[in-house]
Amino acid sequence: MKIKKISIKNFLGIKEFLLDEPAPAPILLIAGDNGAGKSSLRDALSIAMLGYTSRVKLKKDASEMINHSVPNANEARIAIETDFADFSTIIQADISAGKSKQLPFIFEYLIDAERFAHADDKDRRNVLFSAAGVKMSKTEIIKRLGERGCDMNSVGDLVEDYLLLGFEKACEKAKTEARDNKTLWRGVTGETYGEKKAETWKVKAGEGDLDGARTKVIELEKALYETDGEIALFNDQLARLKFELEIKSNAKKKIDEISNAGSLERIKAKLEHDEAELKKLESAFEKAKRATHAIGENDIVCKCPACETELIMTAAKNLIVHGDLRGDEEAAVSLNDLEQSLEVMRKSVLNGKRDLEMVAINKGKINQFQEQIDERNMYTAEMLAALDAKIANHKQIKADTEKEINRMLVIEREFAQAQEKTDKAMEYTTWLKSGRRSLNHLNLPAFLLTS
After folding, report:
1. Helical H runs in 207-263?
2. Within 61-120, where are the H helices?
3. Cys bridge to 327: 123, 131, 248, 294, which one at CB 3.0-4.6 A?
């Protein structure tokens, strides 16, 4: 980039400066006595082209850079023309930039050499790479390491990232990381690190291994699932058996109830006896009634068609009012008792006839209940007891299986923790082994970092 023109007014120690001819050579040197404004010129270029200055820390203090020795000076102006871009800045109470274009970061170090002196290794390397036109990537580093005979199986992010720091920093960091990884290995294992010991070290967690424990747990869980299925099946069979046995038991109870209600012969005999007694009572009642009213066997009892008065037509064809005759007093006394006995016997006969009908009906019911019993003869109390025993046995098997699963889960967890611990220790061992193989081959010349 070549500067074509510089114009500065009222800035720091410069009242007015104008350079309006391009420099005849690639390098432009500006010389002058102390206080002539050389540093002011540098700061003017820094503010206009990069937007910062070391003279003030805050933009609100920008007015301190105005040259107030000039009468009525209330602002400073800076304008720079280059073949790259034009830059301009006006300083009043604050700094306001005109049109500008972002410069490559290296210009910060070219304008302000002290920045390079205070920069860290990373920034210095970036400046040097940029100035030299060097681009160094991880791919290029891996390629050059391979050309130098490094073990490529050990060159990974470990070496790549380290070499981007620079060779010396990479070696220092590798040593620090190696020490830290040994400490971490000791923290995991509780033992002092040893190269040969570390390669085969592992946690002992009893007999067997993690895969074996997991396989055993899977087998036990499968067995538990099958046991649960069998228990569910037995419970269904038990419910069905209880249902059938309940029907069978209820049928037997109904038959017993019907049988206890009385036999057909006894009911028939009682009915015949009650019917015979009823006839006797009816005959005795009629005789007592006639005797009470002195009505002969050939007399006829009737009513007057006109007044409804009860009349008696005697055998002599005489018509007399019922009650006018004087009858048998003893017969009159027994008439009421005979009438009550007659009513009781009539009810007994009716009940006997109804019981006889019920016996016929119940006989059909007994046949139905017996069919229910016969259909369920295969269901027995022994079967019920056997099913109860099976269910109890399988529940015990289930409890034992669950206990064994819990025990194996503890073992599996112990194996997993042991494996995790072993893997963690091997992670540190692998780092140390990989880093040692790689770094032992690294006699890297400076051209890797500078070309």
Report:
1. 210-260
2. 106-111, 113-118
3. 294
End-to-end Cα, the chain, rounded Å: 24
Name the strand (E) or helix (H) holding 16: strand 14-19
Q: What is the DSSP letter of 62?
A: G
What is the mean pLDDT of the segment spanning 405-421? 86
| Residue 251 burial by Cβ neighbours in a 10 Å radius (0-12, 13-18, 19+) | buried
Q: Do the domain assignments include residue 436?
A: no
Give me the percent of the chain exceeding a pLDDT of 90.
Answer: 13
User: CATH number of the domain that 96 lies in?
Assistant: 3.40.50.300
319-321 vs 95-97, strand pairing mode: unpaired
Q: Give the count of alpha carbons within 13 A of 186, CB side only.
A: 10
* Nearest to 356, CA basis, from 279, 261, 255, 260: 261
Collapse the DSSP code of 87 into the 3-class scheme (helix H, G, I; strand E, B; otherwise coil) and give the result. strand
Q: Does 393 map to a domain?
A: no
Which residue, among 102, 103, 144, 104, has the nearest Cα to 127 in the 3D structure?
104
Question: What total number of domains does the chain contain?
Answer: 2
Residue type, 118: H
pLDDT tens digits along 145-173: 677 766 666 555 555 556 556 666 766 77
- Bridge partners of 97, per DSSP, are 89
Residue 325 pLDDT: 45
Nearest to 138 by CA among 117, 116, 164: 164
Q: Tell me the C-alpha to C-alpha distance, in Å, between residue 44 and each of 1, 29, 103, 151.
A: 17, 16, 16, 54
The 3-state DSSP class for residue 89 equals strand
